[in-house]
Amino acid sequence: MDNELENDPSSESFPTCPNCGMPVVDVTITGPTTQYARPCGCLVHLSELE
Ligand SMILES: [Zn+2]
């Protein structure tokens, strides 16, 4: 959204999961510091999704 420096064709417009490297197409937020990346399901922080 605000990071257009990353133009990796394999990730389209989605950030990649810092844990497993899969494209994160959605994030489920369950708390102020608890976000689960989808579809991989890893626990991530939104600040790490770049
Ligand atoms: Zn993951």
The largest pleated sheet is described as: 3 strands, antiparallel
Class from helix and strand fractions: mainly beta
Query: Within the largest sheet, what's the order of strands?
Result: 1-2-3
Q: How many helices in DSSP terms?
A: 0
**SSE order:** EEE
- The whole-angstrom Rg is 10 Å
Number of strands: 3
Query: Roughly how much helix do the residues carry, as a percent range?
Result: under 10%
Low-confidence segments: none
Q: What's the N-to-C terminus distance?
A: 10 Å
Mean pLDDT: 80
Notes on the structure:
- This protein is mostly beta strands and about 50 residues long.
- It has one domain (about 1-50).
- Helices cover about 0% and strands about 25% of the residues.
- Bound molecules: zinc ion.
- Zinc ion binds near residues 17, 19, 20 and 37.
- Zinc ion binds next to loops.
